[in-house]
Design goal:
Immunoglobulin-like, Purple Acid Phosphatase, chain A, domain 2, 7-stranded mixed β-sheet, globular, alpha+beta, binds fe (ii) ion, 22 strands, 7-stranded antiparallel β-sheet
């Protein structure tokens, strides 16, 4: 009897390994709206996948496409013609030669509340700077990567989605000089076991910053930026990636929040280019570039016409408002910065918040404006990379209304209340999901009365 049990246990274990053996990383939930949902998965070479999802006794099929990727077998499962506000159980059947395996999970479509009832309460997670140690390729000395169990705490959060704020993986010398190097770092990070539960737990959206785009402080001159853009678009699952095959900027809507995903690298002038020439802002020095800023302005005006939107979150890797930072910040691109600030004032765009990363510390910077509501720059960093201590000109930053340094952390942004009392609460949480600090702002406080 004991022998039979042991043999059965061995069979179950082997079948489990078999199932795992066909999957390199994922499944990861991607862009999800009211009527469709993306599931991303990377499989061993030659493996294929078919998919179904079911809710309330109804089964739907999916469109499966394979990315044009010579290094990894990335498959996208697009569930469509779904019902809003519904939780679906999905099943992926994976086949390779004589091996078969089944992966299951669930996703929930966004609800149709507009013109019917108040926006649902919901939350999302955000964070930046993810470094996983790989000692043979890392700088010698103390490992730069911290405790990656933070992703287990994040996977347990009952949040609607995760927004990766850049430096989502760190390319090193072995990666950023070649096409296969860029693919290697993305695939290696995505396949790490500690991330697999998180990929499945909620949809993931992302922007990039220098380290997942290319070398430290990389700008528009990076010669592999086309590959980098392709890698980013293949290893994430955003709704779109720039326009006319340039940049990775995009936008999505979650209930009453519009999220603008900015690209602060593809079009960026070098940080060391002069801020001003003959006392005037240098018109050549740009962080986002004319094409992207033009899109952003139009997208904000478009958003303004949508009466159901309470908050407009502009997410970008580099900080935006920090007046005393010795490091990169949108302010150091005065031509574009001043123009954009004037635009926000002139057009009275309400509910704007900046959400940024990169700094290896967390803080909220406040900028007062004459006759207008104040602007805030919420910086969340780092998830696992080295931490930073407030020092130098930033030791007592007078514009900082909340600060967390020397601690790994992530942000949880929760939206609650009816339209008149709609409120955003931002919690900064530590490695075990423990509350470090909290701050809140209402939609009314981000509104300029006419
Ligand atoms: Fe960065």
């Amino acid at each position: 009897m004991k022998k039979i049990v042991l043999v059965l246990m061995a069979c179950v274990y082997t079948l489990g390994l078999w199932a795992q053996a066909l999957v390199q990383s994922g499944p990861m939930l991607g862009h999800t709206d009211l009527r469709s949902a993306q599931v991303w998965i990377s499989l061993v070479p030659q493996a294929t996948v078919t998919a179904t999802a079911a809710a309330d006794g109804k089964t739907v099929t999916a469109l499966v496409t394979k990315d044009d990727n010579a290094y990894n077998n990335i498959q996208r499962v697009q569930f469509y013609n779904l019902e809003p506000g519904t939780t679906y159980q999905y099943t992926l059947q994976i086949t390779a030669a004589k091996q078969k395996s089944t992966v299951t999970g669930s996703f929930t479509t966004q609800s149709l509340w507009q013109f019917r009832r108040p926006a649902p309460d919901f939350s999302f997670l955000a964070g930046s700077c993810t470094f996983f140690n790989e000692p043979q390729y890392d700088r010698p000395g103390k490992p730069y990567g911290g405790d990656s169990s933070i992703f287990e705490a994040m996977a347990k959060e009952k949040s609607d989605f995760m927004l990766w704020l850049g430096d989502n993986w760190y390319t090193r010398e072995v990666d950023y000089y070649s096409v296969p190097g860029l693919h290697y770092r993305a695939a290696q990070t995505k396949a790490l076991p500690i991330l697999q539960n998180f990929w499945k737990a909620m949809p993931h959206y992302a922007i990039w910053d220098d380290h997942d785009y290319g070398p430290n402080d990389a700008d528009k001159s990076y010669v592999l930026k086309e590959t980098s853009r392709k890698v980013f678009s293949q290893y994430w699952s955003n709704p779109s990636y720039g326009f006319e095959n340039q940049g990775i900027y995009s936008k999505f809507t979650w209930n009453d929040v519009d999220v603008f995903l900015l690209d602060d690298r593809y079009f960026r002038s070098n940080d060391d280019m002069e801020d001003s020439v003959n006392g005037m802002p240098n018109t050549e020095k740009r962080m986002f570039g004319k094409q992207q800023i033009d899109w952003l302005k139009n997208a904000l005006l478009q958003s303004k016409t949508n009466g159901s939107i309470a908050f407009r979150i502009i997410a970008t890797g580099s900080q935006v408002l920090n007046q005393v930072s010795p490091f990169d910040c949108f302010r150091k691109f005065p031509e574009e910065f001043n123009d954009f600030m004037n635009f926000l004032e002139q057009h009275n765009i309400n509910g704007v918040l900046f959400l940024t990363g990169d700094r290896h510390h967390t803080e909220i910077i406040k900028q007062e404006r004459t006759g207008k509501y104040p602007l805030y720059d919420i910086t969340a960093s780092p998830l696992t990379s080295g931490t930073h201590k407030f020092g130098g000109p930033e030791a007592n930053n007078p514009y900082r209304v909340l600060g967390v340094d020397q601690l790994q952390n992530y942000a949880k942004l929760s939206f609650s209340g009816d339209k008149k009392n709609r409120k955003l609460t931002v919690q900064f949480l530590g490695i075990k999901g423990d509350l470090i600090k909290e701050w809140s702002v209402t939609a009314a406080e981000l509104t300029t009365k006419k």
